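Look over this record as teaching material.
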Amino acid sequence: MNIWHRTATLAELNEMSGSCMPGHLGVEISEIGDDYLQATMPVDQRTRQPMGILHGGASVVLAETLGSIAANMVVDGEKYYCVGQEINANHLRPVPEGIVTGTARPIHIGRRSQVWEIRITEAGGKLSCISRITMAVVAHGE
């Protein structure tokens, strides 16, 4: 079942965040499924911490980017917009290089809030981070 209120192309979504933090870190929306949104991010000099592995903050940027875009695609953008209220992340496996892929799926889509789970895997498919974001659904003019 398709959950999206509005449809967008991958090019439109990537252009939207190209000149802000996700773009600076190389985040690219790569797939829009019926009930999920997926993006990739390189593990390189922009996203590593001093120990040479993927920085936890970069994983959170990937997770928040996916959750925020997905949340806003679910609502009627003429009436509502979504903003982050809380995010958490459990970093499970170090990733020293390559590409990580994040996949956001809804846990709860309500009238005033949404909760999304984002799973981030390394190139071999092993889970490196799991995150959950709570989004507030705000009416324009509130």
About this structure: The first helix runs from residue 10 to 16. Helices lie at 10-16, 21-24, 56-74. The mean pLDDT is 96.
